[in-house]
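Posting for a labmate who doesn't have an account.
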Amino acid sequence: MTYLDYQATTPLAPEAREAMLRWLGGPDSDGFGNPHSPHRMGRMAHAAVEVARDQVMALFPAGGQVIFTSGATEAINLAIRGVRGSGPVAFSAIEHAAVGDTARVLGSSHELGVTSEGICETDHALPDGTRLVAVMQVNNEIGTIQPVAEWREAAHAAGALMLCDAVQSFGKLPLAQADLIAVSAHKLYGPKGIGALWVRDGVVLECVSTGGGQEGGLRSGTLSPALIAGFGAAAALSAERMEADAAHVAALWARAREIFAGWELNGSADQRWLGNLNLRLPGLDVARLMSDCRQIMFSAGSACASGSGRPSHVLEAIGLDTAEAKSSIRLGFGRYTTMSELELAAETLNHAALQQGPA
């Protein structure tokens, strides 16, 4: 099988797996302690959590605090629900559902449009009383990079805070400046089930998860030293390999663009993360393509919307009609993708698409 769905999740780095093993803990191990217990095993587990916290913190802007969560969705909910005030939440039309659905369910939201290139430009007026602006750094479906720093200035000018979903950029690109940043470990070669919200110094959030208040009084629940250790190791490795990984991805992107020359690119060709290749072919039956190419793991859109039957809201936001959106595929590659794997997969996909005949 060939895995080309790096936006959905990434392979677990061997270094992250190794860091996790001790803290999974069996009955003959000293690594299964509760990190919130005061005894020796608890203190050992707590120390492992704090080492990993420092490793994760190193990828964020200086200062602030990292609140560990179960993933980016929980981090985003903590940010949106925790920011004080009753004013609207403004968010780009291509945000992940964790942002859009949460903002809408709170009853006061404002959607910011994007260009046909998939960029949310800062020429939108924010509603009076806006309390939070949410614009992601890299879009998960089409890979476009958003002007987060400019939106932060616009948010502050309007008296609002800035939330950035950095799930797809964390460990791959330097992070944009924001007041709140949500990330997930399994998008940078770490384990699933762990993420974080970075909170800038001076930003005050309301607690939305009561219980033990283990994470700075903002998030309750027993932390998993194993998951957090894996997250920390993956973050440290990503910091070391950021330039090398980016160069590898750029080479894969350049070759993929040559091989898929007859396909249309969705989103900007320049202002994007090069590990995301979202393409369309007029009249393509994507369901048939996926059936014919079962050994290639790729996506017909966002993994979170798979099987819904609905066209991607991101592709609709950039002006694609239903037929165009439904004839689009997303290929994602990264650190462990080889050039030969990509070339063979592309040959298979192109051949299968050709067999469908003209639209």
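Reply:
Got it, the structure tokens are right above this. The longest strand covers residues 65-69.
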